[in-house]
Design goal:
The chain is 46% helix and 12% strand. With 372 residues, the protein is α/β, with parallel strands linked by helices.
């Protein structure tokens, strides 16, 4: 955005910290940056505020904008439909237009008096990777004669720590006839990556026929060229959905966090979601968009190497299970576009981002400029 000519008041990367002690240590800088941003809003009096995701900060900014008479457009809804639904009143009070990326979110908000529009999911609008399998194999030293399995453990270091080791155990269970690709998110630093690579290497010390694990930086290409994947719950499951190759979903947190989540997460009528035999509601976004379980989920105690290997093996073959999942993924991907769109390409008129721009321009035309 800065390259496009926008004035950046606060650098998000300077105030992004994870963990309790890290946040406390940087609290003066974080609050200083926030106050600087609020002062800039008061001074500049923009014609519209476009807030993107990031609810812990953006709900506060929306309150300031409301007081100043600045209309608020919110793009990428906070997951109020899953938990913290009491915050819905803040949306009702402070947000003029909610632009959502999942189809059930539009119905959820409209039923509760919020002007919401489903613009489609930006990831679904991306073209498939153009890099050939041969070029990708040469770039990362992969064996093109073998099938590849992608392992996506998450975008935060804590998620990688919780999820990757179970994934590599499953890789070992599946056997050495495959190569395993681990895309590393941009949020993982080079120092953290080296620690992850060292620990992963330690997992295979003393084992016969260790499975090859290759770390890469491009998740979409890894998913595209892999026969199947193991994906940690989160945005990566939407990436995997839009690519269309079969995958299974995993996630691991502490027992206390898992128990609290089971008590707190409740879906509204707009989401068709049935609990499994253990009473767990689905958490993978492809399952929520589909309205049924189209990809297996292995959470906490069910996240074992044996379970993952058993679920993946039929997806690696030309089996009925694989064909059914490929068809289900294609059907669900189509739901990530508004009803009058078929996707990017023939038949498409506006991309999700263009629809956001259209909504902002329409709001500007219908709203008087704020009083200085």
């Amino acid at each position: 955005m800065e390259t496009a000519g926008l004035k950046r008041v606060v650098r998000a990367e300077d105030v992004a910290h994870m963990g309790i002690t890290e946040v406390l240590r940087h609290m003066p800088r974080v609050f200083g940056a926030y106050r600087r941003l609020v002062r800039a809003i008061r001074r500049e009096r923009p014609d519209v505020a476009i807030l993107i995701d990031f609810p812990d900060v953006n709900f506060r900014l929306a309150k300031h904008c409301k007081r100043l008479g600045i209309p608020v457009v919110w793009f990428v809804s906070p997951q109020l439909w899953a938990w913290k639904r009491r915050r819905l009143r803040w949306v009702q009070q402070r947000v003029e237009k909610m632009l959502v990326i999942f189809p059930f979110e539009e119905a959820f908000y409209r039923a509760r008096g919020v002007d919401a529009e489903f613009v489609g999911h930006p990831l679904a609008a991306l073209p498939l990777p153009e890099t050939s399998r041969e070029a990708y194999a040469a770039e990362y030293g992969l064996d093109p004669a073998k099938q590849w399995i992608a392992l996506l453990p998450g975008s935060r270091y804590s998620e990688v720590s919780n999820n990757l080791w179970g994934m590599t155990d499953a890789a070992s269970e599946i056997g050495d006839g495959y190569e395993f690709i681990v895309p590393v998110a941009p949020t993982i630093t080079e120092r953290q990556l080296k620690a992850i690579q060292y620990d992963t290497g330690d997992l295979y010390l003393g084992k016969d026929n260790p499975s090859g694990v290759t770390f890469v930086r491009d998740a979409r290409a890894a998913l595209y060229h892999s026969r199947a994947a193991i994906v940690a719950s989160g945005t990566a499951t939407v990436q995997a959905l839009t690519i269309g190759n079969p995958f299974v979903v995993v996630y691991r947190v502490s027992r206390l966090t898992f128990a609290l989540a089971k008590r707190l997460v409740r879906y509204p009528a707009e989401i068709a979601a049935q609990p499994d035999a253990d009473g767990n509601l689905p958490i993978a976004m492809p399952n929520l968009v589909a309205g049924r379980r189209i990809v297996p989920e292995f959470l906490n105690e069910r996240f074992t190497a044996a379970n993952l290997a058993a679920a993946l093996r039929p997806l690696l073959e030309d089996s009925p299970e694989r064909a059914r999942m490929v068809a289900d993924l294609a059907e669900t991907r189509a739901k990530l576009f508004p009803p009058d769109e078929t996707g990017i390409g023939a038949g498409a008129t506006r991309s999700p981002i263009e629809r956001v721009a259209d909504a902002v321009e329409a709001l500007l035309k219908s709203t008087p400029a704020p009083t200085p």
